[in-house]
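Hey, can you fold this one?
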Amino acid sequence: MDQIRLVTQENPKSPVAEAFRTLRTNIQFSNVDKELKSILITSPGPGEGKSTTIVNLAVTMAQNDKRVLLIDCDLRKPRIHKNFGISNSKGLTTILSENIDYKEILHSIGIGLQLDVLTSGPIPPNPSELLGTKKMKAFLEKVEADYDIVLIDSPPVGMVTDAAVLSTITDGVILVCAAGQSIIEGAKNAKALLQKVKANILGVVLTKVPIGDGKYYKYHYYSYYYDYFNDENNEEKGRRRKKAEANA
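Sure. Predicted structure:
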């Protein structure tokens, strides 16, 4: 089954929904000196909960009265349209290859929130090259001006270069790793690839963490944990958070 549960919408008082709200808050305070307008979500490998994370994070941010745009930039194995049960006949690749207004092919998610989805569109023969064009950068700048936050789904960074390319034109990157599934060396390699292109790595979301009697696995729920890559970053971001709270 391709459609995933919008836990943050269906069961907003659940521990999982609360974990997403914590993630939202951590993202908010991760760069208090500069507003984050676009965030790339990627993972070291496939099947680590990346799509579940980005869809529920998008809902959580929209619940906070934000205008949110979710873009499927996985031009190899797109899933967002399947998650929401919407058409993918036109999407990002249509915008980048034709002279068309993106607002004409947006999908507004009818759950009482300001959440729009732009699907990938038809799969192109050259995903990395298409995502690295000036037109892609200009498009991202336009939607950043139109929305409070833009969330971007991409292929795993450890498998193709697409995520690394996108990380150079987005404000921050979150790496999604599955507990008991992600190989440590693979996660380190993903981090190194992002650092090589000077990506702004915000942190890690650890998915599929067993809780209590494991009932979350039974219902296909996940536990989410947000952390930073090193203690130095943690201390610096802690100082920024205190500064933001003092000025609030």
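Residues 217-247 form one domain. Let me know if you want another pass with a different chain boundary.
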